[in-house]
């Protein structure tokens, strides 16, 4: 009984350290964006700046997913996060830019004032498209953090699995709603500290996706 309790304590301590390391890494890598988001007024004219300050979250998300999914090779969690950050920086940033450009255009269309008023149904449609874009981006970041595919292949696979695995897409939407709720009810910085738990939920939601990608698109014996 004593040995079991010690093992449980060690496991809890390791998980706590891992969580804390990823949380600190997320805060450090998103700090410029966090500061900018806290200082910006919530006005339509700042939509492009919001997109700019949200961009650091894309590579940070990819690195966090990489650290959570990496096997225990004796390296520290913080170093594993940084390794994933360096490996996926360009690809994750490209995914983030593509998504944020579309989301900025949609935000201007939905929230625009003083111009031609859009019908309510059209605005609802734009909101649905925006949700789809965010789901696509998160699926793409999950894929890029686990597999060494070309960016265009990652983008295509993310579109494909958004429709092939609708329950996964709904799960990702639920994680997105949770993250939005945390950021809205508290403040954006809290989201970075809660990031490891949110990324863990995202990773669990996407387990069927990663298994299917590995089975169908990774050659036997190849790393993934």
From TrEMBL:
It comes from the Bacteria. Keywords: Membrane, Transmembrane, Transmembrane helix. The chain crosses the membrane at residues 20-40, 47-69, 89-112, 124-149, 169-202. This is Putative membrane protein YesL.
